[in-house]
């Protein structure tokens, strides 16, 4: 039995990973910590050193370290110990992937966004793989509904997510001054991106002239331990602002036309005057699946920073048995059948028409939700995805590495 050290912080899916690995008959040890210095956190180093010392004293071999998202400090530790470091990326963008440690030979990096994986490959990462995310079917199936849950969580249409309207998540809002030319360029390219689904144009539109001039007004400096990545950071900043504007526009449109319930911890003042019911923040493990299950229609609006991948929200909605209408995304179209397991929209007008249609066609809506649930149960469970990941790393029987996982 192989032994895995799972590093946990406070990510919502870490316990699901531990459970999935145990189901696959791995021995899992857990090290919990809060990372303050992503490159050289001394407390994290002490925790790992203590663990490996105990392994040595007890004659135990640790076969790999696993984390959700990528931590350069762990990669440095695993390089010293010459132990595989497996990271499954659930955030996009993720600035730690610009760390110069990503090319360490011990790294096995799995990312849900194909565009992100292709970038890692271009940077010379030896073990970089495209891997869709998973949802915890066992957790959602175990949820018990009480009588008072129905009036609390039921709705015609619901959206759960960040509005990206604070300076911590949206750095564009913190920009104080730029030249009139840059302001006009930014606004023009973001307006163009707002009307496009299934393609990302901002990165390609940022010319060297624009990037160079932007450096005089907007500072992005992750330090000497990171590759120069100003172009990508600037693009991601604009993509986040587009996501903010898109969500406000869509929620305003839906709120004016349907009975919409919004679950968010974001400031909702921009939606003042729109007849929206506010559900506030909901707990990921206990309340979120009730929202998804009891909403007639769940809306997914993928962050523009995710170029191709399937967001975790999509899988969680389907795994909880919810009916989903989502924006078009190339990997969603590849792995799900539109109109059979979920529904995709390609414009705001298209979204409005489909919400109206499916509110009036209950049996069809229920049939699609049931098919979506069965799809993720079979193909996107933690046991299945972790078996694929571990098959790549350890070469388990039954995994065709050359055919399925091209690094």
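^ Assign residues to that structure.
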């Amino acid at each position: 039995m192989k032994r895995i050290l799972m590093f946990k912080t406070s990510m919502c899916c870490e316990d699901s990973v531990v459970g999935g690995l145990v189901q696959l008959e791995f021995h899992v040890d857990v090290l919990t910590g809060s990372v303050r210095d992503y490159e050289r956190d001394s407390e994290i180093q002490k925790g790992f050193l203590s663990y490996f010392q105990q392994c040595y004293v007890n004659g135990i071999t640790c076969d790999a370290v696993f984390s959700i998202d990528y931590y350069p400090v762990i990669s440095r530790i695993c390089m010293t110990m010459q132990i595989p470091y497996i990271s499954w990326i659930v955030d996009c963008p993720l600035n730690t992937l610009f760390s110069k440690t990503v090319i360490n030979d011990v790294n096995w990096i799995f990312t849900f966004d194909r565009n992100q994986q292709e970038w890692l490959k271009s940077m010379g990462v030896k073990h970089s793989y495209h891997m869709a995310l998973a949802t915890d079917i066992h957790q959602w199936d175990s949820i018990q509904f009480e009588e008072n849950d129905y009036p609390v969580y039921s709705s015609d249409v619901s959206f759960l997510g960040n509005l990206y309207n604070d300076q911590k998540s949206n750095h564009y809002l913190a920009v104080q001054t730029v030249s009139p030319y840059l302001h006009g360029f930014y606004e023009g390219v973001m307006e163009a991106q707002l009307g496009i689904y299934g393609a990302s144009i901002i990165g390609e539109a940022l010319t060297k002239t624009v990037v160079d001039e932007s450096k005089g007004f907007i500072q992005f400096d992750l330090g000497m331990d990171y590759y120069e990545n100003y172009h990508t950071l600037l693009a991601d900043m604009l993509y986040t602002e587009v996501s903010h504007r898109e969500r406000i526009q869509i929620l305003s449109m839906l709120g004016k036309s349907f009975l919409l319930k919004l679950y968010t911890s974001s400031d909702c003042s921009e939606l003042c005057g729109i007849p929206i019911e506010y559900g506030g923040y909901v707990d990921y493990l206990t309340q979120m699946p009730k929202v998804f299950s009891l909403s007639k229609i769940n809306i997914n609006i993928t962050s523009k920073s995710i170029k191709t991948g399937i967001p975790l929200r999509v899988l969680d909605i389907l795994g909880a048995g919810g009916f989903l209408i989502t924006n078009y995304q190339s990997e969603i179209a590849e792995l799900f059948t539109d109109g059979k397991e979920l529904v995709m929209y390609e414009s705001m007008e298209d979204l409005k028409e489909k919400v109206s249609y499916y509110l009036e066609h209950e049996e069809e809506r229920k049939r699609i939700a049931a098919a979506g649930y069965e799809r993720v149960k079979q193909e996107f469970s933690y046991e299945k995805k972790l078996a694929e990941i571990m098959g790549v790393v350890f070469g388990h029987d039954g995994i065709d590495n050359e055919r399925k996982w091209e690094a």
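The radius of gyration is 22 Å.
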